Amino acid sequence: MSAPLPWQQGQWEKLLSRIEQGNLPHALLLTGRRGIGKQHFAQQLAELLLCSEDQPVPCGHCKGCRLTAAGTHPDLRIVTPPEDKRVISVDQIRELSNYLSLTALYGGYQVVLITPADLMNVNAANSLLKTLEEPSANTLLLLLSDRPATLPATIRSRCQVIRFEKPAQAAALEWLKEQQSELDSQIAETLLELADGAPLRAAEMASEGAIAQRTEMLDDLEKVVAGRCDPIEIAKKWLKLGKKESLYWVYGWLVDMVRMKVAAQPPYIANADVAPRLSKMAANIELSLLYKRLDQVSEALRLADNQSINAELLLEGVLIGWTPRR
Ligand SMILES: [Zn+2]
Question: For domain 209-320, which CATH number applies: 1.20.272, 1.10.10, 2.60.40, 3.40.50?
């Protein structure tokens, strides 16, 4: 991956000109949905500041670049929750302040990544506030967050925000195909949709075997339709695979089935590789019922983000509709 990602060019150039003018802010808050490339951008910016060459992107071969890429540059700190914890603690931020009170070992910038910044607990955030209020020269703090609204306003107001919007579909697909050359175009589109337009998340899903998972789920649904499987058991299983992921797949199949029913010409089918199976299923369902199920899954997707809703019941509700009538 070269620096920066294609859809980050604008933000990158703005920062470059600020670096040239010598007025880079002390703290940046990078926001945008999961898998948009915040971490990549932050890493590249860190590498650029610690690179000894004067170029618009890190040179990749000087000592600074090599140490950054290896994760061992003494002037770069990454603060993230410890493996067994879900929060960034006040001790981690205190340790960071001590570190920042020392001068950079290589005489240039000291760069810090705090990710995900929204996992700082209240005490950690308060402690960071002091650092943000008295920034030392040649220090850059990069806070990364998918959920910036959950950060204290006092922290947000002391950072310059760089927001990454989801890239245009064509640009995202082009990048995705470059990363995963064997990926079928229609599956790439489905994955991108599933990743809510975030290309790195889509690439991650492709390598995590999301397609194999979808095929297994379709097996499950066929068994439920044939009355050979208990929908409650399947709901339990799908919950482990991910409630939203499961619902998105069912939603996608339903959309494909509706297209098959209503189109005069052979329609565009997102799950083209399993089209014959979907078509067979659709043949036994009235169009009005397909629309009803589509509404039901949309509603379930809307509710899926609500933490107080029982996700297993939500999936059961969707699956029970597919069981044969007795
Ligand atoms: Zn370099």
Answer: 1.20.272
Any idea how long the chain is?
A: 326
The predicted-structure confidence for 22-72, as pLDDT tens digits, reads as follows 999 999 999 999 999 999 999 999 999 999 998 899 999 999 999 998 889
Alpha-carbon distances of 255 from 27, 86, 90, 111, 264, rounded to whole Å: 44, 37, 48, 47, 16
Calculate how far, in angstroms, residue 57's C-alpha sits from the geometric centre of ligand 1: 8
CATH level 2 (architecture), domain 6-163: 3-Layer(aba) Sandwich (3.40)
Residue 272 burial by Cβ neighbours in a 10 Å radius (0-12, 13-18, 19+): middle
Cα(249) to ligand 1 centroid in Å equals 44
pLDDT tens per residue across span 272-315: 778 999 999 999 999 999 999 999 999 999 998 788 899 999 99
User: Distance from the CA of 98 to the center of ligand 1, in angstroms?
Assistant: 27
Give distance in angstroms: CA of 76 to centre of ligand 1: 14
The residue extents of the domains of the chain are 6-163, 209-320
